[in-house]
Amino acid sequence: xxxxxxxxxxxxxxxxxxxxxxxxxxxxxxxxxxxxxxxxxxxxxxxxxxxxxxxxxxxxxxxxxxxxxxxxxxxxxxxxxxxxxxxxxxxxxxxxxxxxxxxxxxxxxxxxxxxxxxxxxxxxxxxxxxxxxxxxxxxxxxxxxxxxxxxxxxxxx
Length: 157
Fold this sequence. Notes:
- By secondary structure, the chain is mainly alpha-helical.
- The chain has helices at 6-16, 31-49, 55-76, 80-102, 109-119, 128-142, 145-150.
- The protein has one domain (6-16, 30-150).
- The N and C termini lie far apart (33 Å).
- It contains seven helices and no strands.
- 20% of the residues are buried.
- The longest helix is centred in the middle third of the chain and has 23 residues, at 80-102.
């Protein structure tokens, strides 16, 4: 497999590991919760850079990312039939998230918070996710596509 986008994938994984995001769950966070937060990071990335880079490059990033996710699911121990179903579910969730992210700037803060409630089992309607991802959007806009793809990022937002 071509590891051209390994830094990008690892950057998303590191962003997803932000412990402050997981204080808001009603139960312990799960692989599925972490994957959904990963998909939010990826959706915002795709949305911000969709006009800055070619469709071919974005498709390569998409393909690589979902191939890595599939490998992660395999490592957990799911069987082939389960993996196909899980991947289909996660791709559908990603497209659902991407659809909502495309309209993100039109939503007020309460609506943004409700989007996270739709996907995650949160303690209460807390603005931590909308605040975090609004800062993430600003961070993405301040950095180039190539720096996000090729470099190792150390965000402080």
